[in-house]
Amino acid sequence: MLKTVIQRPRGEGFVSGGSEAGWSPPVLSAAALRVLSPVLDSLRDLGAEANALFAKGEQPTPEDLPLLRPAIHATLESLDGLASGCGFLAAPNAFRGGRLCQQWWSWAEGEAVELTLDFDSGSESFYDYSVKEYFARPAVTGLPEIEGPYVDYLCTQEYILTCAVPVLVRDRFVGVVGADISIGSFQRRLLDEDFGGVDIAAALVNNKGRVIFSTVSRLEPGSMVRNAELTEWFTAKDRAAVRTTDFKVWPCEPLPWAVIAFNHDD
Amino acid sequence: MTDGLRSEAAHSARPDTTEQRPGERSIVASARRSILVPLDMGGRAGAVTDRLREAIFLNVFPGGRPLPSEAVLSSELGVSTKTLRESLVVLRAEGLIETRRGRTGGSFVKKTPGVSPAAVRLRLAGLSASQLRDLSDEHRAVSGTAALLAADRADDDQIALLAERALGVRDASTAVSRGRADTQFHTEVAVAAQSERLMRSEVMLQRDSRDLLWACDSPFDPDQAALDHQRIADAIARQDGDAARALAEEHIMSNYRFLLDKRLEMRRR
Predict the structure, then answer these.
(1) Which of B94, B114, B134 is the last residue of a domain?
(2) Whole-structure pTM value
């Protein structure tokens, strides 16, 4: 079963389902993609709205960001139960004068509430999103990013994943559209997906080796798989050439994640 | 499962949260619910004062905004208006609230709650040795376990951040910034532990203790604190969970021993 052919992402990069009978690690990887693909799809739509704001003739100002509200609300509605918040975070140089500014909405008590971040660098709750991985990496790579799971102590105070899609206007990076996903709702959605059961010892891990989801109670979510071969696999140009001794690895493209499966005796 | 618990707490929150800082919503909702439970029959002013003080430290009542009316507060706390007023007098003396006159008057939470040595002394004077020991017990459990788990779960970025934050308390120049740096280090340990709950507990415990440590008239030694932090960070970096836990517990206990000594010293004068 471990020899099942790795499912390569097709088209937009999302596998449409685990068609094989029974369980296999690639099915878990496909299920994770199915849970997250609505998020990435919605963020692409929201990104198009943000792009349109900047692509207009005159240069927008931070005061124009509320124009994104309807689109942000629509995104939040469409991802209800999965995303706890979403919005647009502007690149510090997106506007003349250069400063941090955003338009972000979260669910609170069943209502969408605007999040105001503290951009006072001298303050204890100063939140500089421009140095966060989910912002800084897409700024360089121009590709979607997913950070976490991490304890977000300044904003949501939850254990979350943050998905972000860069907004590029004529190749210029002007910010990201993003969504926060509580790890709990992600795991629940994944359990609802047809990933074939929990009979094989396997785990979904991020590129730091942190466990996102696993079928082995010993491998708690949030724990680290510290293994030199796994690190090598994540950084290798040719992943197929990387040998792993104690487990097998499958990619989860386009997410920076992997599914690892162990022998049952481990 | 924790998500379910949290949303339940969030639903019980009041909607008057417009000026809260980001992310404080959920913690505030649950904090308000647990702090503003009615006190036992005939609850003393001291207990009321403790609850209100905590509520202000936790930003349940944000700085610059009015406290709820005396009628509302006394009914939520289940005490008489007279008892409530006694508490407000104490909070005013500590510099946590101020009274404004006029049509829009009433009791307001001060924007920067009092961190004057005098206010801190008053606060410490209100704590018994048992209360300090109890705080120490809880803080030790939280910080010790956070350090143990961080050693197991921290990634390279978090290890680097902890090494940097460890020195924050030494490099800070004011009482307020020392307190913040101390809080930041311990919060990052809980963040590295990947635990939402330990992080929340740590933040609350820090707010309970840090002014006592750093804003009093002869504060804790920042170099010693930085050294302790460094040792904890080192143990986390080498994934030695037992050492990290032992060092964190010893650090917390020495903080509270310092406070207890201060408390006793006040009695001697």
Answers:
(1) B114
(2) 0.75
Residues 145-174 of A with CB under 8 A from B: 149-159
Return the CATH number at B58.
1.10.10.10
pLDDT digits (tens, 9 = 90+) for B206-244: 988 998 999 888 899 999 999 999 999 999 999 999 999
Indicate yes or no: CB of A153 within 8 angstroms of CB of B11: no
State the residue range of the domain holding B155. Answer: 121-268
CB contact under 8 A, A153 and B199: yes
CATH class, range A36-185: alpha beta
Residues B108 and B131 in one domain: no
Closest partner CB to A159 (pick from B11, B187, B196): B196
How far off is chain B from A55, nearest CA to CA, in Å?
A: 30
- CA dist B80 and B11 (Å) reads 28
ipTM of the prediction: 0.84
Contact A223 B23 (CB under 8 A): no
Q: What CATH number does the domain containing B181 carry?
A: 1.20.120.530
Q: Is A117 on the interface with B (CB under 8 A)?
A: yes
Question: CA of B13, closest CA in chain A: separation in Å?
Answer: 8
CB A7 within 8 A of CB A26: yes
Domain boundaries, chain A: 36-185, 198-262
Instruction: Give the distance from residue B211's alpha carbon to the nearest chain A alpha carbon, in angstroms.
Output: 14
Q: What is the pLDDT of residues B157-210, one digit of tens each?
A: 999 999 999 999 999 988 888 998 999 999 999 999 999 999 999 999 998 899
- Tell which of B114, B132, B162 closes a domain: B114
Query: Quick one: B77 and B199 in the same domain?
Result: no
The reply to whether B90 and B208 lie within a common domain is no
Backbone angles phi, psi at A205, to 5 degrees: -125, 155
